[in-house]
Design a protein that fits this description.
Layout (H helix, E strand, L loop, with lengths): L3 H4 L1 E10 L18 E13 L9 H7 L1 E14 L2 E15 L3 E17 H5 L8 E20 L5 E5 L9 E15 L5 E11 L9
Antiparallel strand pairs: 1-2, 1-9, 2-3, 3-4, 4-5, 5-6, 6-7, 6-8, 8-9
Length: about 210
């Protein structure tokens, strides 16, 4: 079988409207705790690379045939002009198939992340620029149910989660790593596009084992 890291690869294309606000960096020096908070709401496209997947080497087919939607909501605060901390909640589905099998997984995800403004780090400015690039690293938990079925007969082959003898959702830790770009429309509104890799400490996400 594939390695645990490969199995747990989830790509989240984040398209959101964010209350980032175009910040005046001078105010960071005064330590105002009520300033520089933000919220995000994301639409996500989720891809799972596992033993029960076919188009791992073809991104276009992977998105069109083996993807499912989800959402993510976040709240955070810029602590420095180049760094922020945020909490995230994600919910969604994963799907994959082979010639004989298909898997459907639903998940909830809870993470805490640090966010770096790479543009500000390498090209310092007095205020947040109209466009900037971000790097994210975090830690969190995922809980999920997974169903593996026979594609020809529709019969259930294996389950993980509440339908199994375990009688509750599987919970594991994860490490999210993300790269994104933010376009500021004005001082209160921004568009965020991102790509995230999530390493999840389990080989049960596709219910193969």
């Amino acid at each position: 079988g594939k390695t645990r890291a490969t199995l747990a690869l989830i790509l989240l294309f984040l398209v959101n409207i964010s209350l980032f606000a175009q910040r005046e960096f001078e105010s960071h020096k005064r330590g105002y705790i009520w300033k520089h908070w933000y919220g995000k709401a994301d639409l996500t496209i989720n891809l799972m690379f596992s033993d029960v997947s076919t188009h791992d080497a073809d991104p276009l087919k992977k998105i069109t045939e083996e993807s499912r939607f989800g959402f993510n909501i976040s709240a955070g605060k810029w602590i420095k002009n180049w760094g922020a901390a945020e909490i995230n909640y994600s919910r969604g589905n994963l799907y994959g198939f082979t010639n004989t099998l298909e898997v459907s997984t639903n998940f909830n995800q809870y993470t805490v992340s640090g966010l770096l403004n790479l543009t500000q780090l390498f090209y310092p400015a007095d205020k947040q620029t109209p466009f900037f690039v971000t790097l994210k690293l975090g830690y969190g938990l995922i809980d999920f149910n997974a169903r593996l079925t026979d594609r020809e007969t529709g019969k259930l082959v294996h389950v993980q989660g509440t339908e199994s003898s375990y009688k509750k959702r599987v919970t594991e830790w994860l490490i999210p790593i993300g790269l994104g770009g933010v376009i500021n429309f004005d001082y209160n509104l921004a568009l965020n596009l991102g790509l995230n890799y999530h390493y999840i400490n389990t080989d049960k996400l596709d219910s193969k084992f």
